[in-house]
Amino acid sequence: MKIKKITTIFLLVTILYSCVKLKKEDQSSLVENGIEKTWEIFLTIVQEKDKAAFKEVSSKTIRCYLCLENTLAEQKELDAKRESDPDWYNQLYDKDIYIPIDRFINEDFDLIFNPEFVSILKEKKTIFYKNDNEEVELYEVLVTTTEPSAEHEGGQHSFQFIKKKGEWKLREIGTIP
């Protein structure tokens, strides 16, 4: 009976140690693959409003639903498409949502990366989520930008980075929910 208890305790300690070791390895892989450093650089770029550097760390297009309705005129245009175009949904998600980087910088950068939002991105907890995809290396950087409360379920902003030619590039900006 005593040997059974000792064996059980030993087994539990071994399992716990393995989990802790795995967690440390996961963290070191974040550092090794450069996504944490990329995020730090990204935050500095948006804080300093360095649009040339932003273009360098971004893909040629950014998938961005926010960009389709971040002004009153864009909201009205989207509403008109919903009412008049039977194929509006497919058009929206197959084509319109992909914003060319130059247009994003000219029309959306300042609206999205205002000082208040950048401050939230820098202060809030960041989660790095590896999107397991065999064809490309992707990471989602998740930031809880609205804390849950009795009146609101909370929300996150998601920044998806893809590794291209050994460098991380911003590919998508989204929200959850």
Describe it for me?
This protein has 177 residues and is an alpha+beta fold. It has one domain (53-176). It has seven helices and six strands; from the N terminus they run H-H-H-E-H-H-E-H-H-E-E-E-E. Strand 5 and strand 6 form a beta hairpin. The chain starts with a helix and ends with a strand. Residues 6-25 have low confidence and may be disordered.
Which descriptors would you attach to this protein?
alpha+beta, 6-stranded mixed β-sheet, 7 helices, 54% helix, globular
Q: Short description, anyone?
A:
54% of the residues lie in helices and 25% in strands. With 177 residues, the protein is an alpha+beta fold. 13% of the residues are buried.
Approximate shape: globular
**Structural domains: how many:** 1
Class from secondary-structure proportions: alpha+beta
Number of strands: 6
Head-to-tail CA distance between termini: 52 Å
**Beta-strand residue fraction:** 25-35%
Helix and strand element order: HHHEHHEHHEEEE
Query: How is the quaternary structure best described?
Result: single chain
Percent helix among the residues?
A: 40-55%
Main beta-sheet annotation: 6 strands, mixed
